[in-house]
Specification:
single chain; 418 residues; alpha+beta; FAD/NAD(P)-binding domain; Helicase, Ruva Protein, domain 3; 2 domains; seven-stranded mixed beta sheet; seven-stranded antiparallel beta sheet; 19 strands; 25% strand
Length: 418
């Protein structure tokens, strides 16, 4: 057993962990960053299709609003380290950034490796000792803020402990929920983890025939079957990818958390508006226009002016509208109207943690000081990143939260040593 002594120990070398370690070291503390994988930042390397969407082009308030109920908890850390400062940090570290049409901020190189390397090199240059291939078996308090961290081969004696071990999403990256039992033993309450930002499984057979088709602008809503008159449980407008198993893309993945929060997918209905830019009255005008040549136009041709051609043809076939506008019966017109504006997607579930980009659930937020990320239960323990019960939409929001909370934890842990 090899013994080590540091002022601050950080468990988990992801976005929050590398940020926390660097900021603690910047304050002059001796810091060790303990990581179970062979290399740090594995999830960073896989994110954004290996491009890494580091933040969103908005301000701290915009990020906070996107997190809904969790946004209030994030306000102090976001205010101290908002998106513009994240971008400036990466620019200073040699990673030029760009803003895409969706508001997502990526490295100009489109390489997540450059993001990971910038964070890792920053930590190393500030003096952080990075110990990889060290799966933590557990840790315990020594009293007065001190902690012991135990791995299979090493023992770490630290004065302050920062836990940034992530959630359970993408377990192939090593994020397997290791921290939950450790923190539960210390008295923390864990909101049951569940997949979020995950592709949906389901869809009728005719939609599976459209696999590979992308709707660039649509709206997906999750509605409570028992009370359809209420506001949707979740709603997202954006792009949707039809797959051979179901649906992916921002519009589907951003509402997935509402499904995984339910006891069963059967409790809700997932509806697709394929044409949110056209209201129902406008669509009815199109479907009833018999003036001049309008009445002779086939329904599939008419819909193809509004929707992707493959979808237009399939809808006309599936809803018995393989006819001209003049020949379209009223009952068929109403069914077609519903199909375009409120198509049930028949969702049976999600692809689970294996394909989830984020974990919903985690450490209860009222047990953490939002300015410092210090535990209200265990002095000297700081918790940041995805292990907290806070998750946001696609678009760089979750990395932003990781950077902000990780930075707050690192600064506060080092300051507490004074």
């Amino acid at each position: 057993m090899v013994n080590h002594s540091f002022q601050i120990g950080v468990i988990g070398a992801g976005a929050a962990g590398m940020m926390a370690a660097a900021e603690a070291a910047r304050s002059g503390a001796s810091v060790v960053l303990v990581e179970k994988n062979r290399k740090p930042g594995v999830k960073i390397l896989m994110s954004g299709g290996t491009r890494c969407n580091i933040t969103h082009h908005t301000n701290a308030k915009g990020i906070s609003r996107a997190f809904g109920a969790g946004g209030r908890f994030l306000q102090p850390s976001l205010g101290a380290f908002p998106p513009e400062k994240v971008v400036r940090m990466f620019e200073d570290l040699g990673v030029a950034t760009k803003v895409e049409e969706t508001g997502k901020v990526f490295p100009v190189s489109d390489r997540a490796l450059h993001v990971r390397d910038a964070l890792l090199n920053q930590a190393l240059e500030l003096g952080v000792k990075v110990h990889t291939e060290q799966p933590v078996l557990g840790f315990q308090s020594k009293g007065q803020g001190g902690w012991e961290i135990l791995t299979s081969t090493d023992h770490y004696d630290v004065q302050r402990l920062i836990v940034t071990a992530g959630g359970k999403s993408w377990p192939g990256c090593g994020t397997t929920g290791d921290a939950y039992p450790w923190l539960t033993e210390l008295g923390h309450q864990i909101v049951a983890p569940r997949p979020a930002l995950v592709p949906l499984v389901g869809g009728s057979s005719w939609m599976h025939d459209l696999a590979g088709l992308t709707l660039t602008d649509c709206e997906v809503s999750v509605v409570d079957k028992l009370n359809r008159s209420r506001k949707p449980l979740a709603r997202r407008r954006g792009s949707l990818l039809i797959t051979h198993r179901g649906f992916s893309g921002p519009a589907a993945m951003d509402v997935s958390g509402a499904l995984t929060a339910m006891d069963s997918p059967e409790d809700v209905e997932v509806l697709l508006d394929s044409l949110p830019s056209v209201n129902e009255n406008q669509l009815i005008d199109h479907l009833t226009d018999r003036s001049r040549e309008g009445g002779r136009q086939r329904i599939a041709t008419l819909l193809a002016h509004l929707l992707p051609k493959r979808l237009a043809i399939m809808m006309a076939q599936q809803f018995n509208a393989d006819c001209t506008v003049a020949e379209l019966p009223k009952t068929t017109r109403l069914r077609l109207l519903d199909a375009v504006k409120r198509l049930p997607l028949s969702i049976t579930g999600t692809l689970g943690f294996d394909k989830a980009e984020v974990t919903a659930g985690g450490v209860q937020l009222d047990e953490i000081h939002p300015k410092t990320m210090e535990s209200r239960i265990c002095p000297g323990l700081y918790i940041a990143g995805e292990v907290l019960n806070v998750d946001g939409p696609i678009g760089g929001y979750n990395f932003q939260a990781a950077f902000s909370t990780g930075r707050a934890a690192g600064i506060a842990a080092a300051k507490s040593l004074e």
